[in-house]
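so my prof wants the structure for this chain in the tokens format not the other one, which i didnt know existed until like an hour ago. anyway here's the sequence
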Amino acid sequence: MMKTIRIAIDGPAGAGKSTIAKLAAEKLNYTYVDTGAMYRAITYKSIENNLELSNEEAIVSLLASTKIELQPSDLGQQVLMDDQNVSDAIRSQQVTAHVSEVSAHARVREELVRRQMVLAQSGGVIMDGRDIGTHVIPDAELKIFMSATAEERARRRFVDNKERGISIEFEELKADIIRRDKFDSERKASPLVQAQDAIYLDTTNLTIQQVVDQIVELAKERELQQ
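here's what i got, hopefully its the right format
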């Protein structure tokens, strides 16, 4: 029996990490851990509690009493916060616009990274985010840095929003993605960078299935090496 591995997928906003990671996890029979959803959950709760999002102390205090669970279901991974399903609520444009600000707080990242490390311990997991290969599981057996042009990432988000009934101008989405790229790569706490031993994967001209197939093939090669 081949040994399962830990797969870290990092990359900028809109690169398709979550979609790809979910599908690859299904093919490999691995557990998918959407770390971005955890940051979105505490961002959502902070907004709901009318916290000043620049107030790290207040958000850390709120997080300490917040339970965040990721549960598989027939409808895909569900995000539960304090036993409430917030899977749709955390995908709102308001949360999307502020999640980078909340996730930039070092102590917020420290606590969520600690929780993510626990989830990764048993192996057979795929995690996606901004700092999985550099901070959460730096010794992961397979690291992927996935990206695409800002134009393509904005187009994908535009199509996704349209399917969900959300109306946001393409240029606004593109400007937001460029802003988030700059913010995520320049923040002091766990900035978005490609791990030295990560495989760079440009998905601009690839279909979802082509990217999934590449990751599954790489994973099986690494499994054989264990």
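also thought this was worth mentioning. The chain has one domain: 6-218.
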